[in-house]
Each structure stands twice: as C-alpha cells, then as structure tokens.
C-alpha cells in the first residue's frame, strides 16, 4: 500500500476556505423566534482543505492550500492566523468575489449544527500552476462540491502523475448525486464518514456500506466517529477503535483524520499504521475548539 510517488513530499489541498464562527457551551440548539446564548466562542480559519493541510504541516509534511480567498474584512482578519499555521500559500487565489465565506458552527453535547455561505465559484486561478509544482505528490480534494464544479480536477491531477484523495463532505444537494461515482473516477483514496457512506450506498451497516464503496475506490477510509474507523484496501478490511478522550469540539476532526492517514500513506506505511495515524490525528483534534485549535499545543 504505497504511493506511486512516495519519494515526493508535498500535498496540494484543494477546496473552499471558510471563516469558522464556533459557538460552544450551548444548552440547546436555536429555534425560530427564540434566542439562546453561548458560553464560549472562537473565530478560526476553516474549511476541509485548510484544516487537512494544517494538520499535515504540523506533522512535518509540506502542504499547499489551493483555494480562493476573499478580500473582505472577515477573511483578512484571519490572515495572520493562517500564516502562523505554516502552510504553503503560493497558490492562494485572492479575489474580492471569494468572500465572505463563512460557517457558523453550533456545538451542543458533542454534536454540531452548521450554517454556511459559499461565495463565488470554487476554481482557483492557480489550479494548473499548483498541479505543475515540482514538489507535489498528491492532490487532496476536501469536498465533493468542489469536484462537482471542477470536473477535470481528478483527470488533470492524474495527467501530472499525482495520486488523489476525496472527502465527500456532507452537502444536502450533492451527497446523493446519481453521477457521484462517475465523477469521482480516478480517486485513489475515498474518505467519507458514516453518514455520508449511508447516503451514498443506502446501507446503515458500516461494513456493508464499506463493501459497496470499495467497488468504486481502491482505498476507502470510513470514519465512524467515537467508534473509530474502518479501512478497505482491495479485498482486505481493517477496523480500529478510537481512544477514550475528553471531547471539546468535533469540528474538523474528520479533516485531521484525513491528514493523519495521508501522511502515513505517502510514507508507504502499512494499512493498520495508516488507520492508527488517522485515528490519532482525529482524536487529538476533538480535544480543542475549532479545526486547528489542537495545533496550538504542537506549535
């Protein structure tokens, strides 16, 4: 189970950038016509592409963010925090039509609700330049919505010799796209959570869902939250539990999981080692607020 370019180090992380407004310490979820108050709040850079890239960098792997970035006051307020993450930002496409792009995250009893706004289109003007980067080994697509807009993304990466991973990232309008698997052709590693796997396969049992997904992708890493994760590599299936940790916020835990898995996989690690690295990264992430909050302890 090795990358076709295991000697190259860098990951291109493609997707939308979001300003995450994270509200914690809620006694319930908002209802129409009523107001509730949060005891804790954090404004952090977000979006699966950024979070995965940040965790890769924290683990010692070079990662470049390939995204459009707004020039609005909310986006620019996070520039310093983004730069502190150590990401390679040479392919960041700054444009006034790319923001504000934000997600309101409401956390209650370890569960979450999201309200997001997209701005403009997903395709960075720097995409082709990023694929030509000599350090690039792998393209990680952080949401199917981006692939849905950029339908040449996988084939273009493959033409450059890069391997490709995809996290579908829940989208009510797209998760049941009848062309989902066709448009994902060429993806080497598919990284859904259990809810997404259920929506895509119709199977509630994770093993049954994993078996169906494994017909479409060479490697499937299925995130099962507090129950750990499962991995299908060809005809082999592996499973591993999550450690018991104090959960503060699960925002971005799946993206951290992706980073742990990709980092190990690109180094040619065995399946169980890749799964352990992924679960470890996700478990560390949930112990702090926001998708990159846990990285403060590493810096």
Task: Report on this structure.
The protein is α/β, with parallel strands linked by helices and 299 residues long. It has a single domain (10-16, 47-98, 120-297), classed as 3-Layer(aba) Sandwich (UDP-N-acetylmuramoyl-L-alanine:D-glutamate ligase), CATH 3.40.1190.20. Helix content is 29%, strand content 23%. It has helices at 48-58, 73-76, 79-84, 127-131, 144-149, 153-159, 180-183, 194-201, 206-213, 253-266, 271-285; strands at residues 10-14, 18-24, 40-46, 63-69, 92-94, 102-108, 111-117, 136-141, 163-166, 189-190, 219-223, 229-233, 236-240. It has a nine-stranded mixed beta sheet, with helices on both faces. The model is unreliable at 2-7 (pLDDT under 50).
**Structure class:** alpha/beta
Radius of gyration: 18 Å
What is the H-and-E element order?
A: EEEHEHHEEEHEHHEHEHHEEEHH
Helical fraction: 25-40%
CATH-defined fold name: UDP-N-acetylmuramoyl-L-alanine:D-glutamate ligase
The geometry reads as: globular
The N- and C-terminal alpha carbons lie at a distance of 31 Å
The poorly predicted ranges are 2-7
Domain unit count:
1
What's the total helix number? 11
CATH architectural label: 3-Layer(aba) Sandwich
What is the assigned CATH homologous superfamily? Ribokinase
CATH hierarchy, class: Alpha Beta
Mind summarizing the main beta sheet?
9 strands, mixed
Kindly list the characteristics that best describe this protein:
299 residues, alpha/beta, UDP-N-acetylmuramoyl-L-alanine:D-glutamate ligase, four-stranded mixed sheet, globular
List the helices and strands and how they pair.
Layout lengths: L9 E5 L3 E7 L15 E7 L1 H11 L4 E7 L3 H4 L2 H6 L7 E3 L7 E7 L2 E7 L9 H5 L4 E6 L2 H6 L3 H7 L3 E4 L13 H4 L5 E2 L3 H8 L4 H8 L5 E5 L5 E5 L2 E5 L12 H14 L4 H15 L14
Parallel strand pairs: 1-4, 1-8, 2-6, 4-5, 8-9, 9-10, 10-11
Antiparallel strand pairs: 2-3, 6-7, 11-12, 12-13
């Amino acid at each position: 189970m090795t990358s076709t370019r295991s000697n190259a180090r860098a990951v291109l992380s493609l997707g939308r950038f979001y300003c995450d407004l994270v509200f914690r310490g809620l006694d319930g979820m908002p209802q129409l016509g009523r107001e509730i108050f949060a005891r804790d709040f954090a404004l952090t850079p977000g979006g699966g592409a950024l979070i995965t890239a940040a965790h890769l960098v924290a683990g010692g792997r070079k990662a470049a963010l390939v995204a459009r970035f707004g020039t609005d006051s909310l986006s620019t307020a996070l520039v310093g925090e983004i730069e502190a993450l150590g990401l390679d930002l040479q392919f960041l496409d700054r444009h006034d039509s790319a923001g504000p792009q934000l997600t309101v995250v409401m956390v209650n009893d370890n569960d979450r609700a999201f309200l997001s706004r997209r701005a403009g289109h997903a395709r960075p003007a720097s995409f082709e330049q990023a694929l030509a980067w000599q350090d690039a080994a792998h393209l990680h697509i952080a949401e199917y919505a981006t692939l849905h807009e950029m339908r040449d993304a996988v084939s273009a990466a493959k033409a450059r010799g890069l391997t490709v991973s995809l996290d579908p990232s829940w989208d009510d309008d797209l998760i049941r796209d009848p062309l989902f698997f066709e448009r994902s052709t060429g993806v080497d590693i598919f990284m859904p959570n259990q809810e997404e796997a259920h929506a895509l396969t119709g199977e509630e049992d994770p093993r049954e869902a994993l078996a169906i997904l494994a017909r479409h992708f060479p490697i499937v890493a299925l995130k099962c939250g507090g129950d750990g994760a499962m991995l299908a590599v060809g005809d082999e299936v592996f499973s591993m539990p999550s450690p018991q940790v104090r959960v503060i916020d699960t925002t971005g835990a799946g993206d951290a999981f992706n980073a742990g898995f990709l980092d190990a996989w690109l180094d040619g690690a065995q399946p169980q080692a890749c799964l352990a690295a992924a679960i470890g990264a996700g478990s560390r992430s949930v112990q702090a607020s926001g998708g990159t909050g846990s990285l403060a302890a590493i810096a």
